[in-house]
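Q: For a teaching session next week I want to show students how multiple molecules come together into a single three-dimensional assembly. I've collected the sequence lines for a complex. Could you give me the predicted structure tokens for the whole thing so I can convert them for display?
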Amino acid sequence: MAFVMIREAKEGDCGNILRLIRELAEYEKLSDQVKISEEALRADGFGETPFYHCLVAEILSAPGEPQGPCVVGYGLYYFSYSTWKGRNIYLEDIYVKPEYRGQGIGSKIIKKVAEVALDKGCSQLRLAVLDWNKRAMDLYKALGAQDLTEAEGWHCFRFEGEAMRELAGK
Amino acid sequence: MRQPSVTSFRVRPAEAGDCPEILHLIKELAACENMLDAVKLTSKGKVTVGLAMYYFTYDPWIGKLLYLEDFYVIQAYRGLGIGAEMLKRLSQIAIRSQCNCMHFPVVTWNQASIDYTHRGALDLSSEEGWHLFRFNREELMDMAGEK
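A: Of course. Below is the structure for the complete assembly, covering every listed component.
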């Protein structure tokens, strides 16, 4: 089995990350919603004020193999804040290419994010899952997460585009 | 319930000195109780009657977002347009910071959630099926501890 390394993304990974972002959107059946560019990812993740952090899962090829290391998954997160508990981490995206699933790579990414969370004094890690994605829900529950939408009735609301401009203008 | 008379109000960014007041309002919001007794009204002084706590988040599909973590007006001061003014200021901040949307969590037994949809907000959990999950510190330590 090829060796997989979870490491912090570098600016040069943005092309690969965007490719995987599009794959994940496709998997979630929402690919027409991806509007971001590689340029924006670079500026927003690696500029003066990073708006996100990213880990990549990299397969290192065996000695003698012609191809170099290959990015096969990613975990994109940022720091948030709970007025009840303080510092939080929010795992916005986690994705592993289909042909590399079932090897524990997703779990390795989540565990690495958990380490970062503790290292930075965070008391919670939050994430969102689509209700039909039973495999992901089962994984998170097996790792000890609680479904707050089911347990406590939390829903995520959004004001976008026209609705937000109207609010601002009134 | 007698509504206090309000001649004017203003919405302003919080400063470090506001933290005790902010904590007070956070506890109120958590308890969802009518804490009118705790509000000290004076004829000349200023009273903090609401808060909006937000930060910037990131959606890899569209970029920066403004996330409204907490939004609260003391019950005795509702219906005066304070919440609407806070939402207006937040939207202006979002647009100025090049955010494409504002997200915020709502507990669906909260009647105010219906107000938000009337103002144009979308319930992503109902519309697209998103569920919010949480790992607490204990689970984080379990996960980080395993190698």
